[in-house]
Amino acid sequence: MSSAEQHKDKLMHDLNQVIRDAEDLLRNTEQQGSEGFKSAKERFEHTLRNAKAEVARIEDLVVTRTRDAAKATDVYVKENPWQSAGIAAGVGLLVGLLIGRSR
Question: What gap in Å lies between CA 93 and CA 59, rounded to an integer?
Answer without folding.
Answer: 35
